Amino acid sequence: MSSSAEGRARPRTVAGRLMLALLLAAGLARAAGAAAPDAYPGIGRAATAPELAAWDIDVRPDFKGLPPGSGTVAQGMVIWEAQCASCHGVFGESNEVFNPLVGGTTADDVQRGRVATLANGGYPGRTTLMKLSSVASLWDYIRRAMPWNAPKSLSVNEVYAVTAYLLNLGGVLPENFTLSNTTMADAQARLPNRDGMRTDHGLWPGKGLGNGGVPDVRATACMHDCAAPSTVRSELPAFARNSHGNLAAQNRSVGAQRGADTSHAPGAPSAAAAPVATPLPTASAAPTALLQQHLCTACHGMDQKSLLGPGFAAVARKYADQPDREAVLAARIRSGGSGAWGAVMMPPQTLPDADLQRIARWLADGASR
């Protein structure tokens, strides 16, 4: 072929050369596919048996996929208080961040299999045990997602124990119960809302899953005759505000009683949230390893407020004016509590005294990074 003919046959633009390259690659892929047994030759590889086992951990409502193991209610209580109570409450009553897990069920519901409170429009909320229809779903979720700062860190036996304790809190299982892959069906038979799930609606279309319900996409029920918006008919008068101190600082460590912040009028900035202008003393180095070892960073950021607690820098500013701030901070860490930063409770900390004093001293020095 002459040089002029070759120049005419070869694409002269970048786009043309790119298209030619794609066509050649597609042709080679088809040729390789005809000779190879794989559906997608050259892409990835077959998963190994251990990889499949690590991925395929779901547990069905009929308990298929449930691994062998067991855990007692007593064992679950120990794990719960150490890793669960700080977010879900000592008795599953939760706090302002997470919804309550326990409550709203009765012994009659356990016998009947339907939770009567679900039909009570005046009940303030819906707890997990009120809605749960399958113990396997609860077990599966705890195994995959809990604790929230270290998902999948619980062993199989620990998941059985925590599930048993949670069901015991709800009056579903007795204190001497051992939950296992062989007794899971016994727990399912006592679940308060085990017969409460329906499939005859549009969320479960298809033969075998429901009765072919039509999804509600028109929302006609809420387009007319709507309930009138509610209004607050009572509020704390100005002369009574803070007459007995800030109610938010007097919260109970357990239970649903959480006092409102009475240090300021509704809509006004909180006095506790105001920045402190007092300069901080020369700071010591951050005890990063200790903060991580004792899981302090699971609820507290260095500078910014997290979902659960204030940043370490904000804590240092709050106590900067107190001459005995190191001792005060150490006592607060040791005892835990709520109210100073909101209704979310910090559980009592059991870290060694040397570590406690090191963290308190760092906070007292200004929480420098």
List keywords for this structure.
disordered N terminus; mainly alpha; 369 residues; 2% strand; two-stranded antiparallel ribbon; 14 helices
In short:
The chain is mostly helical. The N terminus is likely disordered.
Could you describe the 3D structure shown?
By secondary structure, the protein is mainly α. It contains 14 helices and 2 strands, in the order H-H-H-E-H-H-H-H-H-H-E-H-H-H-H-H. Strands 1-2 form a two-stranded antiparallel ribbon. Helix 4 (73-83) packs across helix 9 (156-169). The longest helix is centred in the N-terminal third of the chain and has 22 residues, at 14-35. The protein is globular, with a radius of gyration of 30 Å. The termini are far apart.
What shape does the CA trace take?
globular
Give the structural class.
mainly alpha
Total number of helices: 14
Total strand count, please?
A: 2
Strand order of the largest sheet: 1-2
- Poorly predicted ranges: 1-16, 31-36, 253-257, 272-283
Average pLDDT rating: 77
How much of the residues is beta strand, in percent? Answer: under 5%
Task: Set out the fold topology.
Elements: H1 3-9, H2 14-35, H3 49-55, E1 70-72, H4 73-83, H5 85-88, H6 107-112, H7 128-131, H8 135-145, H9 156-169, E2 178-180, H10 184-188, H11 288-293, H12 312-318, H13 325-335, H14 353-364
Antiparallel strand pairs: 1-2
Helix pairs in contact: 4-9, 8-9, 13-14
